[in-house]
Amino acid sequence: MSREHGGSGGGTGPERGTGGTTAGAAFLATGSGGTKAGAGRESGTAHLSHRVPDLGALELLLAVARHGSLGAAARDVGITQPAASSRIRSMERQLGVALVDRSPRGSRLTDAGALVTDWARRIVESAEAFDAGVQALRGRRDSRLRVAASMTIAEYLLPGWLIALRAERPDTAVSLQAGNSAMVAERLLAGEADLGFVEGLAVPDGLDGTVVAHDRLAVVTAPSHPWARRRGPVGAAELAATPLVLREEGSGTRQVLDAALAGHGGLARPLLELASTTAVKAAAVSGAGPAVLSELAIAEELSSRRLVAVPVEGVRLSRDLRAVWPTGHRPTGPARDLLSLTRARPGG
Question: 180: how many CB neighbours lie within 10 A of its CB?
Answer without folding.
Answer: 24
